[in-house]
Specification:
By secondary structure, this protein is α+β, with helices and mostly antiparallel strands. 17% of the residues lie in helices and 40% in strands. The chain is built from 5 helices and 18 strands. The protein has helices spanning 27-35, 73-85, 160-165, 193-201, 239-251; strands at residues 2-8, 11-17, 45-50, 57-63, 68-69, 93-98, 101-110, 113-120, 147-148, 167-175, 179-185, 211-219, 222-229, 233-235, 258-263, 266-272, 278-283, 285-291. The chain has an 18-stranded mixed β-sheet that branches. A hairpin with a 2-residue loop joins strand 1 (2-8) and strand 2. It starts with a strand and ends in a 5-residue tail after the last strand.
């Protein structure tokens, strides 16, 4: 199986051009094998670039644990770069079919190669049932914004990490085609993400699990965040998560509608525009190509 390794702000996946390669019979198992950073290719998951009847190409995305996800913001930028750079479609405006629907992407190309991509990520989903978040019936609301998490999640007694990172125990939930929960803190580097990420990801109130983000606000136009991705663990970036953080910042009054988000793997520019769509601009990088000899 021929593959290409790509990343967007350090969020790396193994990409397969299914215009030329057959779609794996068991893509979930392939995702688990190729994502292994010791015995496989290494990555946060597997993305298949497939023909589409509705767009220039279709993206199917599988996390490192084999679970199929609806969307990946960094991944779809890399799909656009691959489609353009490899001649599948050379329009600077591309349409990519995803689990969220068909997205429109604008590529920034130089010398025939894409460097950055601007994605119309669509409208944020705020209805708890659609995210989904299952809240007790008497507490149901049309949005989950700065809701005290300890009333719905068994967080336990105050711990040293809470003081170390200056954690605000209120949560805000947003879907960008996949579910996200945001927590704010004063020192994001002090968050024990390796333990808190899986704890929050699998809470019963999140029936499809959830992506977990801890956010530090530098200014109304700038944030730093760290991410635990559902099905992949700690990642260097999460595009849909950064979009959700942009929306959450506006809803909670912490940030403006345009922000610069610093992630461990790089920066993303976000804009929750007046048309209610979130626009994300960031890098897309091709690292190397090769052939994987495992069974698929």
């Amino acid at each position: 199986m021929r593959f290409t390794k790509m990343h967007g702000a350090g969020n790396d996946y193994v990409y397969v051009n299914c215009f030329e390669e057959p779609v794996p019979d068991n893509p979930a198992e392939v995702a688990r094998k190729v994502s292994d950073r010791h015995f496989g290719i290494g990555g946060d998951g597997l993305i298949l670039i497939c023909p589409s009847e509705a767009a220039d190409a279709k993206m199917r995305m599988f996390n490192a644990d084999g679970s199929e996800a609806e969307m990946c913001g960094n991944g779809v930028r890399c799909v656009a770069k691959y489609v353009y750079d490899h001649g599948i479609c050379t329009s600077e405006t591309l349409r990519i079919e995803t689990g969220r629907g068909v997205l429109t992407l604008e590529v920034e190309a130089g010398d025939g190669r894409v460097r950055r991509v601007r994605v119309d990520m669509g409208e944020p989903i705020l209805d708890p049932a659609a995210i989904p978040v299952e809240m007790p019936r008497p507490l149901n609301a049309d949005r989950i914004v700065d809701l005290p998490a300890n009333k719905h999640i068994p967080i336990g007694k105050p711990a040293s990490w809470m003081e170390d990172c200056g954690w605000d125990p209120r949560m805000t939930c947003v879907s960008m085609g996949n579910p996200h929960v945001m927590f704010y803190c004063r020192y994001v580097a002090s968050v024990p993400l390796d333990s808190l990420g899986p704890f929050f990801e699998r809470q019963p109130i999140f029936p499809k699990r959830i992506n977990v983000h801890f956010v530090q606000v530098q200014s109304p136009g700038e944030v730093t965040l760290r991410t635990w991705e559902r099905g992949s663990g700690i990642t260097l970036a999460c595009g849909t998560g950064a979009c959700a953080v942009c929306v959450a910042g506006v809803l909670t009054g912490r940030t403006k509608r345009k922000i610069l988000a610093h992630l461990p793997g790089g920066d993303l520019e976000l804009h929750w525009a007046d048309d209610n769509h979130v626009y994300m601009t960031g890098p897309a990088v091709e690292v190397f190509s090769g052939e994987w000899e495992g069974k698929y």
